[in-house]
# Entry
Amino acid sequence: MELKVSLKNITLKTPFLLASGTCGFGLIFEKFFDVKETATVITKGLSLNPNPGNPPPRLYETYAGLLNSIGLENPGADTFLKDIAPKLEKKKIPYIINIYGKDIDEFIKLVEKLNKTQALAYEVNVSCPNVKKGGLAFGQDLDTLKTLLKEIKKVSKKELIVKLSPNVSDIKPFVKVCLDENIFNITVANTYLGMAVDLKNFKPHFKRIYAGYSGPAIKPLTLRFVYEASKVSEKANIIASGGITTFKDVLEYFLVGAKAVQLGSILFRDSKAPAKFKESLKAYIKSLNLNTFEELLEFFKEKRKAWEV
Ligand SMILES: Cc1cc2nc3c(=O)[nH]c(=O)nc-3n(C[C@H](O)[C@H](O)[C@H](O)COP(=O)(O)O)c2cc1C
# Structure
């Protein structure tokens, strides 16, 4: 059954992506399922220079999700080009590079370096809550975001996906900025700002106090943002990222308007989830007497038309 889906200038073999930071560089999942047939890998956030990330502790599990303060630890662009990209390319694993810089200049230098890879696109991370510079600062201010996207567009030889922050009261103006800059692929959304405290020692759990919250708890919140973002324009291709835990969650995101979904924290609980969801999706499409994934998206779109009063 045909599960391919077309975003703006990018075709994905299936609507499943492995979310940045939750799958390393994707290679480790090869022992659990056939990655290249199942999902598109989004790399751990990559910066120009190696980044050691934040000091421990970096994780805190709640009964409904996961707080993380990894701080974008990564080996840097040169190591990625030398040791990681060739492996992904040799195995024909489709991949997208998640990029971040502490300022515009760093983003530009990084993109110029990575242009020679076979990555399908760049996912521009303007929404990481765990770093001192860059990150959220780009994703919470409309003018700053606009300037950054304009500059990256000038040097990028690949399609851009912007990964927006959910730490805003209204996501629609941020979607509009992307569309104004002719960027039509948008990930909604990154983690939510949260915190945890250590009652034994009377202090915050994380050294940076705040951390990014992901997992089941955030699904209804991100579902709302995905719905609102997809309503901004027919031209927006929304990639949902937030709390997918069951196959029902996957379908809910498609029903509210997402064209593809990222699997994140679920990968820590069930490394085979992408392969299981792929099979469930085929069975679901068949159960509706439809033939392809794009027909399912059309079917859901028709249903949505009746929602607005
Ligand atoms: C441990 C961890 C590391 C992450 N690292 C990144 C990152 O490097 N870049 C990024 O854009 N998002 C990062 N994220 C956010 C995820 O890609 C995803 O958007 C978020 O976790 C919400 O999806 P989920 O609830 O399915 O995990 C990270 C999330 C977790 C849990």
Summary: The mean pLDDT is 96.
